[in-house]
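Practice problem. Given the sequence and the SMILES for flavin-adenine dinucleotide, write out the predicted structure.
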Amino acid sequence: MPRTQHATIAIIGAGIGGLSAAAALRRVGWNVVVYEQATQFTRLGAGIQIGCNAMQVLRVLGLEARLRAEAFYPRSWNNRDWRTGEVKFDMIFGKSAEEKFGAPYLLAHRGDLHATLASIVPASCLRLGHKLAGLDQTGDRVRLTFANADKAEADGVIGADGVHSTVKSILFGDSELNFTGKVAYRTTYPSRLISGCNVDGCTKWWGEDRHIVIYPVKPDRSEIYFVTSQPEPDFRVESWSCEGDVKTLRAAFEGFHSEVQRVLEACPAVHKWALVDRDPLDRWADGNVTLLGDSCHPMTPYMAQGAAMAIEDAAVLSRFLEGAEPDGLALAFRSFEAARKERTTRVQLTSRTNTWLKDRTDADWVYGYNAYTVPLAFAGP
Ligand SMILES: Cc1cc2nc3c(=O)[nH]c(=O)nc-3n(C[C@H](O)[C@H](O)[C@H](O)COP(=O)(O)OP(=O)(O)OC[C@H]3O[C@@H](n4cnc5c(N)ncnc54)[C@H](O)[C@@H]3O)c2cc1C
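Answer key:
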């Protein structure tokens, strides 16, 4: 427990990374205040794969039972040829992977994961409608200003404000995003709308320059999700509210296996999102401020590990902060950066190749990592 009763860490962004950090830091005795630009949380039509490595953290945060009750428990992540349906590699999850990696692999609605995390962060710690505009480190305090003209102070700040991070821009300047030239169409919808096939697992259908991943997001398979990746080099909007045209989407997957056609035929509406990443950053931390999650290591979704990395970050950061005083924040933040960068860089760069699980793959290094038990060392001076 920090001995200074009023020591507070401000977290910018209440996404999966920010809420995980809030929960993990509260667990080790820190006061946190989470500032989120949105005025309310909305349930976005998207699924999320929760890797065994992320589940190790969510278990320690006390969320395993709720997630098991709300998410789908797949037997595998199957990889099939777009046209023939031939199985290229079936990555087995279920009980055997749970025993091997020590935690389940779950497929959830993103809104359910977000709500589950939000359920352990008291409303009194949240400030919605607060878009960070400025940040100033003077002495041992960090001063924050918001677009709504509010001001705040904290001992330390975590920038969990996503790929367009304001905290990153203030600390390290703006740098170009890497637009992949690919877009993702995605949506969730009731599986009863699909006729002629039963989506009973997770499948990635691999085409030549495009793919589609389809899976249920509820234990009873009542709701399904799909996410695509396909070339649309001129489209550069990343917005949860940008709608896509289902006809364009269906046309892009003509010739794919009949199961894909049925899922796309039944789809009532879809959102569209430009896929981006960044090269690994040189630095994440500066004094009493650090980045976490997509703000410091945004990646393509091809390994389904972006949120998992943010969740792991939260656990590792909390371990460096356990028992620390405010004057130890800078060291804890530097140590966190040093401890995490090699792994997140490897995942970012592997994800970029879009080859994960396409053929037989050694996946142990990803799913077998436990952020609460991996050995850690404080950075040098
Ligand atoms: C198509 C797609 C599919 C994916 N599938 C998976 C998957 O299956 N599994 C997985 O692990 N990952 C997946 N990911 C990656 C995952 O979505 C991200 O890595 C994850 O959401 C990052 O969380 P974050 O909290 O760091 O950032 P974000 O989720 O972007 O959250 C940032 C938060 O900060 C807020 N914010 C931004 N700026 C400010 C500001 N100035 N002031 C205050 N608040 C601010 C935002 O409103 C937002 O709430 C996928 C990504 C995509 C694009």
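Check your answer against the key. The chain has eleven helices and 19 strands.
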